[in-house]
Amino acid sequence: MPAAATTTRAARRRRIQRRRRTAATLVSAVIVASLVVGVFGFVRSLSERPGSEASGAASALQVRTVSDATTPAPTAEPQKADAPTFDTGAAANAAMTVLGDYSDAVRPTKDALYTAIQSLRAATTAEAADAAQAQVTQAAEAVKADATAFRAQIAAKASASNTQPVGGDVAAQMAYLHQHVFSYNSAEWGDYNPYGGDCTNFASQGLIARGWHIDKTWYSKGKMWTASKPWIATAPMAAYFDKLGFGYSTEADLDRVRVGDIGLFSWGETQAGMDHTMTVSKVEYVPGGPPKVYFISHNYDGEYRELTNALYVEHQNSTVRIYHLP
To answer: Which of 105, 273, 305, 306 has minimal Cβ neighbours within 10 Å of its Cβ?
Structure first.
């Protein structure tokens, strides 16, 4: 065979072998690529399956549930109670005037009113204030009723012998005394201070302002030395009150004393019977103790002379009769 033909066949075989190797390489590359795509596609399909979504949602729900369980639920703020609809302090102060105006009520009724007043002062809500005010109103009516009954009782007891008006205008009595305690009404009634004291004369003037009238025993014509002994002297005034049938309290029992009553004093150091006349000008309720009683008078001119101080500080071992005027 010619050498050229042999060379040609050998070259052809080599080309055929190269084609086969190239084809095999391509097939291998295709197979590998297919495998890679398949694997990634399978993995992706796993994440996109419906079961995976439900699992994810369940996991999220579980996280939220745990979070919600560990976070405290917000609590509603407590509702604030309404404040009182009125001035409780002013209402309490007004009720305290009842204890002064009706100081001659029996002690338990005054104690009950004072307790109700303290509850009213302490009230911070509308409900508590309304309830306390209702108690105050009820207790105040009880005090007034008891004092009114006592006044009727002493008036009835003295009715057979009393010749003076019952009740009278206590406000007018006190207004007159306060007007003339330092500025004497000497032009109309005289001034007995230079002759032993003007105290009883002054108290008598207050009774005229209250509505009392002059009689054959108790009188004054206005000018000096035209007055009867009961008008200008303490002991005779006491005898006049006794004749009218009036009762009295002593320093040991003050719960029935009220403004406008007359106090007749005996100073312990004088040993000479009754010495001084004063009119009750104020009675202060004292929790757990006797009331504080104050007087207005001439001689020792003053509007609020306190009883115990007069008895035991200004004087020694003294006594008093405080006559209840019906």
So the answer is: 273
Q: Residue 280 corresponds to which tokens in the numbers above? A: 């009750």
Q: With contact defined as beta carbons under 8 Å apart, do 258 and 102 qualify? A: yes
- AA letter at 249: S
Q: Which two tokens stand for residue 137?
A: 């109103």
Query: Across the strands, what pairs with 305?
Result: 295
How many whole angstroms separate alpha carbon 104 and alpha carbon 99?
A: 9
Helix intervals (H) in 211-298: 229-232, 234-244
Distance (Å, rounded) from C-alpha 171 to C-alpha 75? 61
Residue type, 184: Y
Give the three-class secondary structure for 305.
Answer: strand
Q: How far is 314 from 274, CA to CA, in rounded Å? A: 16
Please tell me whether residue 248 adopts helix, strand or coil conformation: strand
- 283, 263 in Cβ contact below 8 A? no
- As a whole number of angstroms, the distance between CA 100 and CA 174 comes to 14
Q: Is the pTM of this model over 0.85?
A: no
